[in-house]
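Example 371, ligand pyridoxal-5'-phosphate.
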Amino acid sequence: MSKPVFVTQPYLPPLIEFQEYLKKIWDSKLLTNNGPFHQELEQKLCEYLGVKYISLFSNGTLALITALQALRITGEVITTPFSFVATTHALWWNNIKPVFVDIEPDYFTLNPDKIEAAITSNTTAILPVHVYGNPCNVVRIQKIAETYGLKLIYDAAHAFGVRFNGTSILNYGDLSVMSFHATKVFNTFEGGAIVCHDKSMKQSIDLLKNFGFVDETTVVAPGINAKMNEIQAAMGLLQLKYIDKVIEKLKQLIRLYRNGLKDINGITFMDDMPAVKHCYSYFPVLIDKDRYGKTRNEVYEHLKIHNIFGRRYFYPLISQFPAYCGLESALSGKLTVAEQITEKVICLPIYFDLHINDVNRIIDYIRNFTK
Ligand SMILES: Cc1ncc(COP(=O)(O)O)c(C=O)c1O
């Protein structure tokens, strides 16, 4: 049996280069609290991503929770059911009621046509997700947010380096939240960030992630501890050196998948979106049982037999988990597109070290499964 192939695997830069960073950390004894690598990474990420201000976090979930705090969001927030649970959990941890709105059928992001009907007098913000790195319809969502006086926070956990119309996708909305978890294309073991557009917001966020401390004796807000440490930041600096190479490789692998799967009846996938520079870190495929002859779950199990571990991102929907399924917006039949996609989607393995032979094998398993 060949080695297991998982849906993703972190890119790890040469160990020897990481050891040089570790040596510096050991020498300085600066382990955390806005240390030199933390500062350097914030600056370098601003340059690389093309954003004004970034605030690093220990993980993306704490960054989401803090982003909602920084904008003092309360009441109800409109969000998508088609994401990783942390998107909605961040609302719950802030005592905010999530209001789920359906996704659009092409790229699975929040459907702007459905947002207005979900706005009530308690709505204070919209929390869409650039799911799989596919930019939301940022122009239309922005317009709705402005019309109704709502704040707009993007969960950009999947969207490292994604650009739309020549600018970073992170420049849209009031805040964008990133994840640098080990499963993400740019990883700092665990990690995350908030991108914002002005200095005073960056200062508020920095206070909130460090207990609310302004100086040794002044605490101005009930903040949390969500700081990124120096080892994480060092990893980030090293990752930045290799990120273009990593994304280019992922693009090639996705091209291979697309070519290999394109004429299989009942198997569909997304092409690149117009005016978008993608980061290619997910390869979701839809299985149409009626045309393909097998269900998505059958394909998932069939690949497992061959030691290939795709993931059913995002199944179940967040709105189907016990914590949220009782909400009115979560009721069955209200989120029809998301409910269909969640039954059909499987993300195939995609990562820097994935071998071309494995991609070809996966294509063959899918092609031959129904023969
Ligand atoms: C869409 C989305 N939001 C939020 C998160 C949470 O990020 P983290 O794992 O860094 O806490 C993740 C991933 O893990 C995610 O995929």
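Summary: The longest strand covers residues 53-57.
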